[in-house]
Every structure is written in C-alpha cells, then in structure tokens.
C-alpha cells in the first residue's frame, strides 16, 4: 500500500487535508489565469480602439440631449427609434417614433434610411447605446442616442429628464 496510485481510496491523493489543499491551489491558479486573460483582452481592445481612431470621445459627441430629442419629436425631422421590447410599450408610446426592439435590430436595421438622422432611446439609456453601436457598425453616419431614459406616466405622457 505504499504505492501512491490514484486508484486506491487510502492512497495519498485521497487523504482529506492534502486533497483540499491541492484543490484550493488549483482554484487559485485558475482565478489568476482568468484575471490575466481579462486584463490582456482589455488592453488589446483599448489599443485596437486607439489604432482605429475610435474612442469614447466619439460616443460623447453622438449623444442627443433631452432638448434635442423633444425638438426632433415635435418637428418630425429625425427618426426616433424606440428600442424597447414590445411588452414595455404598454407603459406608453411616443408619437412619431418607430419601435424596433433591440433584440431584433441587428436583423432589421435595413428598414431604416441611412440618409436621415436617427436618435435611439429606451427606458434607461443602456439599450439605446447598444442600438447606436449596431447602427454605426452597419454604416449609418447620422446616429445619436439618448443616454438617459424616457419615463412614461400612467396617462401615456412621457418625460425626458
């Protein structure tokens, strides 16, 4: 029984304390490897955006202000793209807007004209940014996103804070 084989229950590999220590060390090594991988990917994506000329500044200049949103909604001179899901429309819908939920926008962006200004919006601003990214990636040049959400009241009116 001095053979340190892995097949015997009473061998050294199956002893309680040693096994737990090896498992803890193994888990630590995996966590460290994952952290290094995440850090490497983050550095690579940062350097890629710097070499392609895309940066956070371009995203900041593509934001629509609440005043712009209201102005374009009244004037009907831009396409206001509502990227909320169909179930969220029960809380209210804004006149002169088009609803294409974010989850189907990637396959339906061809419905939108590339020569008109498009302003994306949602309830909190995060999906409108992703919609903005999808449109820009697919060749749309006149795109802005409302980075704050549109709030709806029970009577169907809306507010852009």
Looking at this protein, list some descriptive labels.
single chain, 161 residues, alpha/beta, Oxidized Rhodanese, domain 1, 2 domains, 5 helices, elongated
Rounded to an integer in angstroms, the radius of gyration calculated over CA atoms is 26 Å
Q: Regarding CATH, which class of the largest domain?
A: Alpha Beta
Number of beta-strand segments:
6
What's the CATH architecture of the largest domain? 3-Layer(aba) Sandwich
**Shape verdict:** elongated
User: What structural class do helix, strand and pairing data support?
Assistant: alpha/beta
Give the topology string: H per helix, E per strand: HHHEEHEHEEE
Question: What do these coordinates show?
Answer:
The protein is an alpha/beta fold. It folds into two domains: 12-54; 57-159, 3-Layer(aba) Sandwich (Oxidized Rhodanese, domain 1), CATH 3.40.250. The chain is 45% helix and 11% strand. It contains five helices and six strands; from the N terminus they run αααββαβαβββ. The protein has helices at 16-52, 56-61, 66-75, 102-108, 126-137, and strands spanning 79-82, 97-99, 118-121, 143-145, 151-152, 158-159. The strands form two sheets. It has a four-stranded parallel sheet with strand order 2-1-3-4, with helices on both faces. A hairpin with a 5-residue loop joins β5 (151-152) and β6.
